[in-house]
Amino acid sequence: MESPSIPLDRRFRGYLPVIIDIETAGFNPKKNALLEIGAVIVEFNADGDLEITERYSAHVIPFKNSELDEAALKFNGIEPYHPFRMAIDEDEALHMIFRPIRHAIKRNLCTRAILVGHNPAFDLNFLNAAIQRTQNKRNPFHPFSTFDTATLGGLVYQETVLAKAAKAAGLAWDNEKAHSALYDAEMTATLFCKIVNRWKQLESLTDKPDM
């Protein structure tokens, strides 16, 4: 992609917001498998509004000796060893996801990415565990800082559940697509952009001189 007309380096203190959603086989990042990862890159358009520019996802093969919680699999509907998943191993998945993020960081003159998620501690913990397992040396993300759309949704729309916050923001929500990593990442990204752009509009109103 070409360099944006308005880079993001000054908007979030040098961080590039990247929306991540991870589907797993449980709640323990060191024991339960990471099964799916979705990543969405957002950038400014020519009008200075934040919008989705790139989307990436990968189905992931459970790491060796990982545990698969049946309740988690029933919840997200993933069959980890189904041949049509076209799953790849963790190391390949991280390289595939991280490469375009590093390019986006560079073209936006940012220093690193910051994970945006809905209750992002869960996603960041699983991401960091996978990075540690694969010994990935090119992690573009800040190791502990995040932006949380559950908090932002509660502030702006009085809703902290992703589906309810999305509906409150006027977005269509498809329950059948929910709990797909890419779908949830896209909806989280759309919500995040809407909140950031709404804040920009409010700032422009307060900056207008009194008539």
Report on this structure.
- By secondary structure, the protein is of the alpha/beta class.
- The chain contains 6 helices and 5 strands, in the order βββααβαβααα.
- It has helices at 70-76, 90-107, 120-134, 149-157, 162-168, 181-207, and strands at residues 15-24, 34-44, 50-59, 112-117, 141-148.
- A 5-stranded mixed β-sheet has the order 3-2-1-4-5, with helices on both faces.
- α4 packs across α5 (162-168) and α4 (149-157) crosses α6.
- The model has no long low-confidence stretch (mean pLDDT 95).
Q: Summed up, what is this model?
A:
This protein is of the alpha/beta class and 211 residues long. The protein is built from 6 helices and 5 strands, in the order βββααβαβααα.
Decide which structural class fits the backbone: alpha/beta
Strand arrangement, largest sheet?
A: 3-2-1-4-5
Which percent range describes the beta-strand content? Answer: 15-25%
Largest sheet: 5 strands, mixed
Structural Rg: 18 Å
Distance between the termini: 43 Å
Write down the secondary-structure element order: EEEHHEHEHHH
Task: Please tag this protein with its features.
211 residues; alpha/beta; five-stranded mixed β-sheet; 39% helix; 5 strands
Task: Give the secondary structure arrangement, pairings included.
Elements: E1 15-24, E2 34-44, E3 50-59, H1 70-76, H2 90-107, E4 112-117, H3 120-134, E5 141-148, H4 149-157, H5 162-168, H6 181-207
Parallel strand pairs: 1-4, 4-5
Antiparallel strand pairs: 1-2, 2-3
